[in-house]
Structures
1.
Amino acid sequence: MSSEPDLHRAISMKPNPFHHHPPRSERTSSPHPASSEIAVSRKDGISTSIQAHISDEHDPVARHVSASHESDVERQSPPQYTPDSDPYKLASALKAESEMAAIRANTSRKRDGFGPITLNKSAYKARKIEKFYEAQNENIERLLKPVDDHRREAKEEEGANHLKYRIAVVGSFVANIILAGLQLYAAASSKSLSLFTTMADSLFDPMSNITLILCNRAVKRVDGRKFPSGKARIETAGNISFCALMITVSVVIIVESIRTLVEGSKSETTKFFLPSVVAVAIAFFTKFSLFLYCWAIRNKYSQVRILWEDHRNDLFINGFGILTSVGGSKIVWWLDPMGAIILSCLIIFLWSRTAYSEFQLLIGVTADTNTLQLITYISMTHSPFVKQIDTVRAYHSGPRLIVEVDIVMDPEESLRATHDIAEELQIKLESLPDVERAYVHVDYETSHAPEHFLKKEL
């Protein structure tokens, strides 16, 4: 099985002070019926076959209850799982806190022996087991969570109700704008190639946010007749152009640095300009403060982790730029252009990696395994009249996902019931965060050839 695509470096996934996705209309589905006894048989890959035993007394409507009036209310007690909300009894696999505490107690044992390297093998295994069950609990709770709760948590992570998240996002955006001005002054006044490199990297941080904001406005003002599927991918296309521009600037700095090295210098050192070094030092310590703040909450908000990694990279670039600029003025002149070359190569590598992630989004890379599992489980439990799940696909179309689900229903079922169940499933899937469009295909058997082919033969 191939590894999952790593898309967290894409600019499209980076948070900004404004909601960079247009608001989605709130949709609800029908009330749920009584529970049914369903047996599951899994296939390899993303296709999952589900056999359901259906009684004729059930109505062809969705299983999950849509509770839009409770979607923004915090749960005050642990959820109580019933046969309707947990038909496959996944909750029985949840590890209780007492069991987790027993496993956790094994990790506090003393080391075997007296050496600093000889560790307790039992404690190491216990830590791995603890992490496994923690991940399993999180996965089960995520699958059993209603769609409304997924949507509510996504809204909260956008920062509407969390001050720490807003401080990290807005603080980083404002700091990037101010620091870009400081670094521009430092580079122009000192004429240091190393500081010009750090300035270019700092200047493009707020520009990337501005690019997302402008693309967001373009997405909202879409002509449905000209762009029937929307213009969400304009963000990804703009980010790829932005990456190309950043790489081009870095190449220009490399060429200028090489020219400076070839021409040489009449003096042993370059001119030292203290205000420039102070300006870059201020930028360094500001980034360090933001780095520490984002580090503290990086595991609570997935998007803050992107900011944390961005600040971490800027710390290295600014710190190395200060060292080579001061080294060129105090030790030997060629340290400055050599440092500019090294930094520019690093920036080209980082932005090329970002561009690769953006290209994956644009081409249509598959969603991660957790998302595929969630979509599969929602489709499985949508209605007792869904006999099987033939195929589940989810792939990116820009920053959001396109979902395709093939369900199997009774061939004798009425057209009205079949249509209503499929439409309700479509609405439910499109209510998930980051799902742009969902397509539900209804069939009556699973032995047919695939409806779509990867390679079209003309």
2.
Amino acid sequence: MANAAPSAPAAAPPVTALATPITGTADNGSFAGTFTPTGFSQRNGNLLATGVLTGTVSDSSGATIGTVTRTVSMPVTVAAATCQVLNLVLGPLHLDLLGLVVDLNQVHLVITAVQAPGSLLGNLLCAITHLLDGTPTAGGLAALLNAILALLGQL
């Protein structure tokens, strides 16, 4: 009986709902296509997205020169984050104060802080909100994103 070598795990198929439009121009042409992530990893503490880049290369007159389908990896940056500080819902209120009647419909107050450079109060409130959260490493974030990608692939 021959021993079979263990095979490497197959890459997840692209989740087409996550396809991101990619465009670019140069002096002599342009590129238009999509990037569809298939996985995430970390290298040197940085988060990387690996996926399939597909698109069309055109010359300066717009005529198609060729098409591209290639697996690529690129760095991922985290955009400005928001965190919910307060979500308060008050039901309808009816007050009768010695003949003065006050009716108030439902009130929904939502306060959201935005983390971004120069947003001092937003940064402070988000930091306080997440004070007891652990800061994920690039590897931990890659594992979480891969799990989300796998779940989306099953839809």
3.
Amino acid sequence: MACSLRIAWDDGLTAYNFGPQHPLAPVRVELTMALARELGVFDAPGVSFADVEPASRELLELVHHPDYITAVERAGRTLEPDDPYCLGTDDNPVFPHMHEAASLITGASVAAARAVWTGQAEHGANVAGGLHHAMPKNAWGFCVYNDPAVAIAWLLEQGAKRVAYVDVDVHHGDGVQTMFYDDPRVLTISLHESPLTLFPGTGRPTEIGGPDAEGYAVNVALPAGTGDAQWLRSFHAIVPQLLREFQPEILVTQHGCDTHALDPLANLMLSMDGQRSIHAALHELAKETAGGRWVLLGGGGYELVQVVPRSWTHLLADAAGVHIDPATATPESWRSLVQRRTGEHAPLSMTDGRTPEHVPFENGFDPDDAVDRAIQATRKAVFPCHGIDPTL
């Protein structure tokens, strides 16, 4: 049976645009939606679209300081940098109507969460969202407002008692972790490249939550060069056990696809097929541990043509209950759109030709393997907080 999926969408979501030289280009979202549409994902039974409104100031203030919101509004009008709030940096240049664009993305993530929480759909999606770095009082890492955190805070306001957040972006989900570091109602799990080699320099396994929430911040810091098999081994050694123990009422996931080997800003080595396995695994865990209630968001991804549209189309298809054979050719009309919009040649199929497999961690720990050491460090740091034996 096809899944019920509500997609939060408005053409204005592509207005979040730091300029033509910035790596976070909105064309990646445009090309994703076009590819998913042409492959029939939106025609599947149970797929619908949610209207999107900008997040109100009241919503933004669930996680952001009022003075910061005012600074964003002002910067979008004056186009002047505001150093205390990290507005006007190379990572976060100011642009016209910045507040309106960022608040629309946040409103879309809240709309996706609302659809799931109220039972309008099993799953809610906002591929333009996942801006997980923004901090309570400043922009950070291409992120002005932290839409995942606002959506989670909104769910808590509605009465949710347990929300799990799993972040598979190559960068640590530092903003979301910060905002819920002392709140045991929210379990944050981030799998990312080691802070020794990548921005933002946080996300060590010893970051486990505040005094009243120990074990509710979980960080898996993977060495540069980690590929499909090792990444999947890490995921399956940690995430399912914690979600089964936590039993969230709703699962929120961030699907940055900058873990791909072609991504220009990071150093992990996943394939399209490995990323497709991740999407499917999180979908299954949502069904197993959260009664199917799943909010899925985009995130990073800077190979704008070869990676992002294909990865997120697979994500939306999985959420919609649509099987896209990895060998499926990309539509000619979509390739033409890619050429017109970017001047690049589009990928010819929906696969990188890989068959990702992994050896379960439970089959044996190798102390000489850097990935196994990363897995073990995380398990030892947080599993006992949840009554789980880290050696099993």
